[in-house]
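Holo prediction — inosinic acid.
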Amino acid sequence: MDIVLASSNKHKVQEINDIVSVYNMPFPVKFILPPEGFDPEENGQTFAENSLIKATEAWKLTKGWVLADDSGLCIDALGGKPGIYSARYAETPALRIERVLKELEGEENRKAHFTCAMTLINPEGHVAFKTEGICEGTIIKSARGVNGFGYDPIFLVKGGTRTMAELSEEEKNLVSHRFVALNNVLNFIKNIK
Ligand code: IMP
């Protein structure tokens, strides 16, 4: 079963296919990139709304099974920011980290979580399933680690001693918000054939 992943991020398609490959699916499931021309306007107010916007746009182009995700970092002391603005919080990933650390200067409450909302649309164009995955942690005071992307170097996973960027890809894929959400989606897909 091919499912279009409503994203132009090749790294994300790879990460999701890696997660699927270790999941015991009763039939082959492969995520593929959408065709050229996929350029949704992410103007929703929540992760769930944005994932629905992306999924709908990709379905219009493909009319098949489509999965969209929308994710970001939510920091308690910043009232949930950067949230849906995670990718746009500053110009580069390094500047985005710098901004977050500056905004948290002197702040005792470092609690944060990554959220990933997913929407699955069927070939008839209806939402077949939607879910959210969360990964809890805290924001440390300076970046550590070189793996992953985005805010990984400042995010210490709850119950551990390493940042997301200090975990291997395989380790991150077992705890991430994307893994939790995808797990729910795959459990749903498993039962539709
Ligand atoms: P999107 O879901 O591709 O729109 O991702 C939004 C932004 O959230 C990314 O550009 C990152 O800044 C941040 N983000 C989402 N997932 C992760 C993650 O697993 N690690 C670090 N940053 C993330």
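READOUT: Residues 5 and 108 are 39 Å apart (CA to CA).
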